[in-house]
Amino acid sequence: MNIRERLKSRIIIADGSFGTYYAGKFGTDESPELANTLHRERVAEIHREYIQAGAELIRTNTFASNSAELGMPWERVAENISAAADIALECADGIYIAGDIGEAIKLSDEAAAEEYFKAAEIFISKGIDIINFESFSDTVSLLPAMEKIRQKYGSDVFIIATFCVDRYGSSPSGRNAERLFSEAASFADCVGLNCGVGPVHMSGILKKISVPENVFLSVLPNSGYPVMSRNQLSFGSAAEHFSGKLSEISELGADILGGCCGTDPGYIRKAAELLKGRAPSPKANVKKDGEEKKPVYSGFIYNKNGDVRKEKLIAAELVPPLDGDDEKLMSSAHFLKNAGVDVLTFPDSPSGRTRADSVLMAAKVRRETGMEVMPHICCRDKNALAIRSALMGAHLSGIGNALMITGDPIPAAARQTVKSVFNFDSVGLLRIASELNSDMFASRPICCGGAVNQNRRNLDNEIMRVKKKMAAGAVFFMSQPVFSADDADRLRRIKNETGALILCGIMPLVSRRNALFMKNEISGVNVTDEIISRYPENGSREDGEAAGIALAKEIISMVSDFVDGYYFTFPFNRVHMLPEILDCK
For the whole prediction, is pTM greater than 0.85? Predict the structure, then answer.
């Protein structure tokens, strides 16, 4: 019977873990996927055990069958996948088979999506018309693959997309389960959860989140939580408890039920005895199309009515101190407040040098001045857990704005002792913030922005990047400093092709030495020789500042007809230059 028709009348019992069961059963640490060609009889034995235990759907032994995990060229990976499909087909008689594809986190998004599609084509060519994307943490590489499958094979293929989350419903990349379900439902027939947590926490997650209408729900929890003993992970043995909790999960509307890490045929036998033949229950929480509301922001770009302000916006950057002395910064903050600045921004350890935390610095300035503040948050130093923690702290401190950036690399001299994180880039940061805004921060969302570099060699790529950031939740952009008419024209093109709200970067250089440093040692800026010639070699401080003020006014005149505001960065904290610059605004 077609799986769609079957699921309308009865739930389906899936198999349990392959990897942890294989390791325990055969006493080996080798990748179980290698057994598809090296130990075919082992793979077949496990499939048959699950079928005898009552599994009505088995997954091919291909979770990690990709070129990065197996360390093989694609041609050999394809042979591995083909062998796994043949073994499953030999074992199954009247049993549903799902071609299993795990997340290839070591590949680029584009390469991973391509391998997923090619793997699906191998399964489909063998007659396997169920594709199971298992334990994904994000949809970036998943959606393109599912779209290609759907475009080529239509409804002939049943697509399952399941995600791995923690007990709070967040994936390793910081995405929440409800949003992942919503995105995957664009192409998948069935969405769900597997791995990450045991049945108790998985049940709790499903009680809180909504499932898109018109999709089936797959739930495959771990047996429980692993324990490290003698350098080996082991799971508890509680098949009775597991099956009882699966029964509770079935009442929340799960259509496919099985197990992940730590489960074995004994677990599936208990589950089948309790659940086999049971009719599906209505979904506990269903989200209808178009039900999601757009958040109303209250950041610096909005007026009291929640509309984007029409006047030019003024942002000024204050760099947190390298030590514990913030007297100059606080003095500058009070000065800029009186100068009419709309928001103060605080970079996150620029150039990879340790400075006071941007969020904590912003919180102090806001508390003592009452100004709108905007910390920069980069993903160089923090994983998804730390990013979410920082954003929650910012929100609790009343901070309503944040600039999401990838971050400067660690200086080469420090790389032996200090390691970058880079779990994701600024687009990933924006997605995390967007989900927090629609969930935890729904009543007072953080207004998030992104950086734009008009000097990128390939401007088309930068335009595409801006569009990605807008789709991920960016509502404004701060540009790199503009120093020439060419810079201004490139920024104008970005504005015209994206419609983004852009604050143009303005840096009033204050000396010839300052200009030469920016030209030769800072990437992403375009200080011309003509600008350097404006600064005499032995000019006074007053001469340098006068040249910087004239330069800033000149840039403002170039961009005032299309930008939405200005983002000032003052070398050496020379914020006293701002009032004279703004005379031309």
Answer: no
